[in-house]
Design goal:
heterodimer; A: alpha+beta; 6-stranded mixed sheet; 5-stranded antiparallel sheet; globular; B: mainly alpha; 0% strand
């Protein structure tokens, strides 16, 4: 063997193609690091410069990076390792909250009687209070309370508490804990796929928009573990709305969002058409965005001491600072054992100070979430400005996640504060946080988003790329109503939005709550329609029905109406447009082609969602069609989300084959 | 945009340009990392280290050297740091990694991993010299500039490598293991 042979060997030993999902993830993390660096660069002003002999400084730099990255390595591997990890991070029930008003007494009770009552209420949500009891092993030692026997609490509560004393726990109890956790965690309300409606019987379709994306995160997690998600876990509209589409934004900030309607041939059923409704909220750039008065409420309890929790929270909050203006203020409240202010309201201009405060946080102790929440609101109130967006950002691994003992008073508390002008957004951290009903409820009552951050890449997506959507609502209670024209359309079907259906009369009732749109948000809804003259009809025509075929107005498929409220207003506005078939004669301009590509991609995602739900209405359309359509219409894909999607479809195909 | 303007824009803090740069460089970073580590998961870890390091230090690139040289400096440093951290923490795991490789990789890939292990054992600087010159196609001069050593040092290492590999190659037992 000599060097020539070695060179040959290099050539022969092929390098496998890089895994595209990993590549997309690394890219996102590098983008986040790039942006974080710019923030620190600004804060420090003086930057080290490259010299020809700076090997030492490079070494130092590299070592520093290395320590962080090896930590990241641990959690990326963990995430890859799947279900077991999910279970370990199970729901922890952290503190009993007996009442919560402005001068609350926080009673953490550990008596077995109280625990029994919680047990009971997990199954039967009670009308009154309760939730969140500190049953963390460490904390019980710290507060010198009598720890309830592990046996009793194990199956119900926190798998963490089992870990330090595993030798005292019989095996079957751990198993019981696991299986209970398992069934407990991934619970989905069943919803039948919207079925085909006959226009003559039911010409009007009404629903609320939905900007949640949690279903996508869940589907992704399942597929990355090599299993197909349960059909009920797939909410097609949440898959579609995970992606940001480059729809044409509204012309002037006077209208909060633009609405575009595209009619195209259905890719999966010949003769059918798709009516594609794309909504784009106006984006506000950093100079124009209103002042923000933010309070970060960070969970630093013992369970946050995992690489993908507190360290990720710190990095995420650092990223969020990037989306703020220098004149905005940030305060930090932590809760663990006792809640405390880690940082008084501070201008973002003093970024260094905020970052330093974040850096110092350490996980440990128990959770005093309610106390923390009250303190956070106190700080927000102290710094309250009417014209600002006053918002609390809660970051937790799910201690507020005990949705089953739904806490009305906590919910009401948040809603009451919302009416005074302080909003609440909730960010979940750590793998396995899917059963997040309370977080969703809190965020909904707080006019905020509930999002789930499992990687720095996801933090980048939510807190930087889409920060304005998360921070600044531009339209509340957005409802859509479509009336189809029986002369032109025989049948229609709304794709997804099963859980968002509204009654026809709800549309004009401003008291009925609906989804909110944030600045720059895109929302997509797709109908599949069968024209009157098509052979694709699924329902036979009624024999005795008088067919009032008038030629008039049959170029119009239907009429679209949207209702929304401007933030802070109680009365809704109405916008409407007719849905017409394009004549298709003229050649598409570049802009139109781009727009069509965005529409096509969303259709690919909608098709994928329907396949995962059983594919009842989409004939022979299959995973390969999804891949092909998605690949063709990927666009710039700056952050690799669409590439990741294509990989997920491949995984679904593989999982299906198994 | 040309490669130069993309680099310049990224150095100036342009997100889109950095994304494009990263896309363009990803494969060569990964390729080097894979050859250095000999298996995919480790290569991904090193690639991640490099990409994040690149993100953090791109603004310091001033064009005193070519971008390629500058980039490979980061790549080599990250790969070496990673290796150090591995030998500190995972003395045991390294062995199992070897076994994993021999199960999945091709004959020549297995051979390469073993040869590079020999090369690495020859002393500080040998492995990166081999990869840069023989796999990535840098000249001795470029590799010397990149690694911050004299050109003659690189030439000596390559020469020395040839001698010792030839000696090892003829001695029985060295290649045996993977044939068994």
């Amino acid at each position: 063997m000599n060097e020539d042979k070695l060179s040959q060997l290099f050539k022969q030993a092929s390098v496998p193609e890089p895994n595209e999902i990993i590549r997309a993830r690394i890219k996102r993390e590098a983008m986040a690091a790039f942006i974080l660096e710019s923030s620190q660069g600004n804060a420090e002003t003086a930057r080290p410069t490259e010299t020809s002999s700076d090997v030492n400084s490079k070494q130092r730099g590299a070592t520093m990076v290395n320590s962080k990255a090896s930590m990241r390595r641990v959690w990326t591997r963990h995430i890859a390792s799947g279900a077991a990890f999910v279970l370990v991070l199970g729901v922890s029930l952290k503190l009993v909250l007996n009442s919560l008003d402005d001068q609350t007494q926080y009673v953490s009770s550990h008596s077995s009687a109280d625990e029994k009552s919680i047990h009971a209420e997990q199954d039967q949500p009670a009308a009154t209070l309760h939730a969140i009891a500190p049953l963390d092993g460490k904390e019980q030692v710290a507060t010198k309370m009598v720890a309830p026997s592990t046996n009793r609490m194990a199956p119900r509560f926190d798998f963490y508490t089992l870990l330090p004393r595993s030798e005292s726990v019989p095996h079957q109890d751990q198993d019981a804990a696991l299986s209970l956790e398992e069934t407990h965690r991934d619970r989905f309300s069943h919803s039948d796929e919207s079925n085909v409606k006959v226009v003559k019987e039911q010409p009007v379709s009404t629903f609320s928009i939905d900007v949640d994306t949690a279903s996508y995160s869940f589907v992704r997690r399942q597929l990355n573990q090599g299993v197909l998600p349960p059909e009920d876990a797939v909410r097609v509209e949440e898959l579609v709305n995970y992606f940001d589409y480059q729809y044409t934004p509204p012309a002037s900030p006077k209208e909060p969002f633009s609405t575009q309607v595209k009619v195209m041939d259905s890719p999966w059923r010949t003769g059918n058409k798709l009516v594609h409704i794309g909504i784009k909220g106006y984006s506000i750039d950093q100079h124009a965005q209103p002042d923000s008065n933010l309070v970060f409420l960070l969970d630093v309890s013992g369970s946050m001491d995992a690489p993908d929790k507190l360290p990720l929270v710190k990095q995420s909050m650092g990223l969020l600072l990037e989306s703020l203006k220098p004149s905005d203020t940030v305060a930090i409240v932590v809760y663990a054992g006792a809640a405390g202010a880690a940082l008084e309201p501070t201008k973002v201009a003093e970024k260094g100070k905020i970052l330093a405060a974040l850096e110092q946080l350490q996980a440990g102790g128990s959770t005093a979430g309610a106390q923390g929440l009250a303190l956070a609101y106190q700080l927000a109130e102290r710094n309250f400005k009417k014209e600002s967006v006053n918002r609390i950002i809660l970051a937790t691994d799910g201690d507020f996640n005990v949705g089953v003992t739904l806490d009305e008073s906590l919910e009401d508390f948040v809603a009451r504060k919302r009416r005074t002008g302080i909003y609440l957004s909730v960010f979940g951290f750590g793998e396995g946080n899917y059963q997040d009903a309370l977080m969703q409820t809190l965020a909904q009552n707080g006019n905020g988003v509930a999002a789930y951050i499992d990687t720095l890449g996801e933090a980048q997506k939510i807190l930087v790329n889409e920060a304005t959507s998360a921070l600044f609502p531009i339209a509340n209670d957005v409802k859509i109503q479509v009336e189809f024209n029986p002369v032109a359309v025989a049948e229609y079907r709304l794709i997804g939005y099963e859980t968002r259906a509204l009654n026809r009369e709800d549309f004009n009732n401003d008291k009925v709550d609906a989804g909110d749109i944030g600045a720059g948000h895109t929302v997509t809804a797709i109908y599949e329609v069968t024209p009157v003259d098509s052979n694709a009809k699924l329902v036979d025509a009624s024999r005795y029905e008088r067919d009032a075929q008038t030629k008039a107005n049959n170029s119009e498929l239907g009429f679209l109406k949207l209702r929304y409220k401007l933030p802070g207003e109680l009365e809704s506005h109405l916008v409407s447009t007719s849905i017409t078939v394009p004549d298709g004669a003229h050649e598409q301009t570049t802009t139109e082609k781009k727009l069509q590509a965005e529409v096509n991609f969303s259709v690919a995602v909608a098709g994928f969602g329907q396949i995962l739900r059983g594919g009842k209405y989409i004939d022979n359309w299959n995973y390969d069609d999804v891949i092909e359509t998605a690949q063709k219409n990927k666009g710039d894909d700056l952050y690799g989300y669409r590439t990741e999607f294509v990989q997920l479809v491949r995984k679904a195909k593989t999982a299906k084959a198994l | 945009m040309t490669a130069e303007t993309v680099i310049a824009a990224a150095v100036g803090g342009d997100k889109r340009a950095f994304a494009e740069l990263l896309e363009g460089q990803y494969h060569r970073i990964y390729r080097f990392a894979y050859r250095w580590c000999g298996n995919v998961p480790d290569a991904e870890d090193v690639t991640q280290l490099v990409c994040i390091k690149l993100a953090k230090s791109i603004r310091q690139f001033q064009g005193h050297s070519t971008f390629s040289t500058w980039l490979y400096r980061i790549v080599v440093n990250c790969a070496k740091d990673w290796q150090k951290s591995q030998s500190r923490h995972l003395g045991e795991a390294a062995l199992t990694d070897d076994i994993a490789v021999s199960h999945s990789a091709s004959e020549s890939a297995v051979l390469l991993v073993q040869v590079l292990k020999q090369v690495d054992a020859m002393g500080e600087g040998f492995k990166e010299s081999a990869l840069l010159v023989l796999a990535e196609g840098f000249s001795h001069r470029e590799a010397a500039n990149l690694l911050g050593v004299q050109e003659s040092t690189i030439s000596w290492r390559i020469h020395e490598m040839r001698q010792r590999l030839a000696a090892l190659g003829s001695s029985p037992g060295v290649w045996k293991r993977h044939h068994e």
